[in-house]
């Protein structure tokens, strides 16, 4: 192992995503897994192991404290845990101003195909009258809508506002059961939880006489690992907060 290897600690190492991240880091020639923490393990183990980077794949209740610990101790962080709303992100940005050498990536999705699909959908959304999102995940997922769907809706909503495109036409007046789904940045988002699924998303765009669909499917959590490794390799060179893996990609859009 090279002395320049990225010394990585995985938090949430016993979970579905965490166990995949452990294997990915162990198999990366330019990285060294120095700690794999599960629920209840002290964060002090990260420092004792000499980590320079953390991967946080825990749960929303603890992720902010984990990233704060990393930033305060000069560790770069790659974060896939959901629950990072605007208030949490603002607190993190304020903390990083006090620790300007630290790079933090908050990524709702690490699958490169998903990141590209969201970026393409945001670009296309400004040219269509109607826009909706359907996200489909396994029934063990604790949040709805998914972080990926929320991030996609934010990107699409911003692009549509900048282009002067109003909300999608919708004559619905009664919806006591919430059939029209959640609304994020004027985009309706529908969540499906179904046994056998992993992570899937469709963006539907429509105008008179035509429809454009962007769909991405992750059939295995291994699909997220190239993005995790990209985050680890890039975070140190991108100090401050980056929200979304697209911030590390040269999309040229």
UniProtKB/TrEMBL annotation:
<feature type="active site" description="Proton donor/acceptor">
    <location>
        <position position="137"/>
    </location>
</feature>
<feature type="domain" description="Dihydrodipicolinate reductase N-terminal">
    <location>
        <begin position="6"/>
        <end position="110"/>
    </location>
</feature>
<feature type="region of interest" description="Disordered">
    <location>
        <begin position="159"/>
        <end position="180"/>
    </location>
</feature>
<keyword id="KW-0560">Oxidoreductase</keyword>
<feature type="binding site">
    <location>
        <begin position="147"/>
        <end position="148"/>
    </location>
    <ligand>
        <name>(S)-2,3,4,5-tetrahydrodipicolinate</name>
    </ligand>
</feature>
<dbReference type="InterPro" id="IPR022664">
    <property type="entry name" value="DapB_N_CS"/>
</dbReference>
<dbReference type="InterPro" id="IPR000846">
    <property type="entry name" value="DapB_N"/>
</dbReference>
<keyword id="KW-0028">Amino-acid biosynthesis</keyword>
<feature type="binding site">
    <location>
        <begin position="12"/>
        <end position="17"/>
    </location>
    <ligand>
        <name>NAD(+)</name>
    </ligand>
</feature>
<comment type="function">
    <text>Catalyzes the conversion of 4-hydroxy-tetrahydrodipicolinate (HTPA) to tetrahydrodipicolinate.</text>
</comment>
<keyword id="KW-0963">Cytoplasm</keyword>
<dbReference type="InterPro" id="IPR023940">
    <property type="entry name" value="DHDPR_bac"/>
</dbReference>
<feature type="active site" description="Proton donor">
    <location>
        <position position="141"/>
    </location>
</feature>
<keyword id="KW-0457">Lysine biosynthesis</keyword>
<feature type="binding site">
    <location>
        <begin position="107"/>
        <end position="110"/>
    </location>
    <ligand>
        <name>NAD(+)</name>
    </ligand>
</feature>
<dbReference type="GO" id="GO:0016726">
    <property type="term" value="F:oxidoreductase activity, acting on CH or CH2 groups, NAD or NADP as acceptor"/>
</dbReference>
<comment type="pathway">
    <text>Amino-acid biosynthesis; L-lysine biosynthesis via DAP pathway; (S)-tetrahydrodipicolinate from L-aspartate: step 4/4.</text>
</comment>
<dbReference type="GO" id="GO:0005829">
    <property type="term" value="C:cytosol"/>
</dbReference>
<dbReference type="GO" id="GO:0008839">
    <property type="term" value="F:4-hydroxy-tetrahydrodipicolinate reductase"/>
</dbReference>
<dbReference type="GO" id="GO:0050661">
    <property type="term" value="F:NADP binding"/>
</dbReference>
<dbReference type="GO" id="GO:0019877">
    <property type="term" value="P:diaminopimelate biosynthetic process"/>
</dbReference>
<dbReference type="Pfam" id="PF01113">
    <property type="entry name" value="DapB_N"/>
</dbReference>
<protein>
    <recommendedName>
        <fullName>4-hydroxy-tetrahydrodipicolinate reductase</fullName>
        <ecNumber>1.17.1.8</ecNumber>
    </recommendedName>
</protein>
<comment type="similarity">
    <text>Belongs to the DapB family.</text>
</comment>
<dbReference type="GO" id="GO:0051287">
    <property type="term" value="F:NAD binding"/>
</dbReference>
<dbReference type="GO" id="GO:0009089">
    <property type="term" value="P:lysine biosynthetic process via diaminopimelate"/>
</dbReference>
<comment type="subunit">
    <text>Homotetramer.</text>
</comment>
<keyword id="KW-0220">Diaminopimelate biosynthesis</keyword>
<dbReference type="InterPro" id="IPR036291">
    <property type="entry name" value="NAD(P)-bd_dom_sf"/>
</dbReference>
<dbReference type="InterPro" id="IPR022663">
    <property type="entry name" value="DapB_C"/>
</dbReference>
<keyword id="KW-0521">NADP</keyword>
<keyword id="KW-0520">NAD</keyword>
<feature type="binding site">
    <location>
        <begin position="80"/>
        <end position="82"/>
    </location>
    <ligand>
        <name>NAD(+)</name>
    </ligand>
</feature>
<dbReference type="Pfam" id="PF05173">
    <property type="entry name" value="DapB_C"/>
</dbReference>
<feature type="binding site">
    <location>
        <position position="138"/>
    </location>
    <ligand>
        <name>(S)-2,3,4,5-tetrahydrodipicolinate</name>
    </ligand>
</feature>
<feature type="domain" description="Dihydrodipicolinate reductase C-terminal">
    <location>
        <begin position="114"/>
        <end position="240"/>
    </location>
</feature>
């Amino acid at each position: 192992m090279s002395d320049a290897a990225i010394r990585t600690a995985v938090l949430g190492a016993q979970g579905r995503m965490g166990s995949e991240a452990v294997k990915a880091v162990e198999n990366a020639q330019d990285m060294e897994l120095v700690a794999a923490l599960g629920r209840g393990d002290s964060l002090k183990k990260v420092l004792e192991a000499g980590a320079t980077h953390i991967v946080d794949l825990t749960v929303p209740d603890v992720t902010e404290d984990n990233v704060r610990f990393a930033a305060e101790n000069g560790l770069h962080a790659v974060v896939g845990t959901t629950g990072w709303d605007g208030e949490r992100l603002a607190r993190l940005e304020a903390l990083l101003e006090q620790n300007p050498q630290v790079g933090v990536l908050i990524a709702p999705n690490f699958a490169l195909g998903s990141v590209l699909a969201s970026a393409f959908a945001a670009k296309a959304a400004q040219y269509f009258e109607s826009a909706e999102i359907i996200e489909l995940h396994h029934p063990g997922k604790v949040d709805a809508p998914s972080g990926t769907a929320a991030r996609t809706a934010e990107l699409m909503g911003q692009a549509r506002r900048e282009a002067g495109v109003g909300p999608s036409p919708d004559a619905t007046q009664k919806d006591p059961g919430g059939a029209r789904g959640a609304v994020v940045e004027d985009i309706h988002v529908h969540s499906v939880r179904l046994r056998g699924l992993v992570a899937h998303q469709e963006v539907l765009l429509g105008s008179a006489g035509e429809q454009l669909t962007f769909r991405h499917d992750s059939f295995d959590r291994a699909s997220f690992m190239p993005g995790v490794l990209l985050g680890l390799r890039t975070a140190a060179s991108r100090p401050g907060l980056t929200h979304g893996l697209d911030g590390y990609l040269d999309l040229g859009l």
